[in-house]
Design goal:
- By secondary structure, the chain is an alpha+beta fold.
- The protein has a single domain, classed as Ganglioside GM2 activator (Ganglioside M2 Activator Protein, Chain: A, Distorted Sandwich).
- The chain has three helices and six strands.
- A four-stranded antiparallel beta sheet has the order 3-2-5-6.
- InterPro entries: DUF1091.
Length: 135
């Protein structure tokens, strides 16, 4: 993830869609945790309709993508799509996730054919001690 400013990280994504996908786009999400020097299966597996979750604003994705992107999961069109300098609102995520390094494999499918796979890598860490002193 590149730095958006000196302290905040953001993610960007640019791709050309070759097919039109609409409300039938499915998202298969699998989480892996870094243990013993490799990413191993972690018991979080999700299979959802991407349009339904986008419309429901799950984890604030609709708010995030409407500000930083031209993507709408209910109406993905052929051509150039982007997400630029997106900073997720982590207050919309579960509060007690286990600390560690993770890989999230997102597979987008249409009619059981894979359209795209994205792998996200990140870490969940405790806040630095100096942040606690500031509060």
């Amino acid at each position: 993830m590149p730095l958006y400013n000196r302290t905040q990280r953001a993610f960007s994504l640019f791709y050309d869609a070759l097919v039109v996908t609409g409300a039938k786009l499915k998202l298969d999400l699998q989480v892996y945790k870094f243990t013993s020097n490799e990413y191993r299966f972690f018991p979080i597996t999700v299979n959802v309709n991407a349009c339904a979750e986008y419309a429901r604003n799950t984890f604030g994705m609709k708010d995030l993508l409407s500000k930083t992107s031209n993507m709408n999961f209910c109406n993905l069109k052929k051509g150039f799509n982007y997400v630029k300098n997106a900073i997720p609102d982590f207050s919309k995520y579960p509060p007690h996730l286990p600390r560690g390094m993770y890989k999230i494999a997102c597979t987008f499918k249409t009619d059981s054919r894979t359209s795209m796979q994205l792998d996200f890598y990140g870490a969940i860490k405790d806040k630095p001690d100096y942040w606690k002193r500031l509060l």
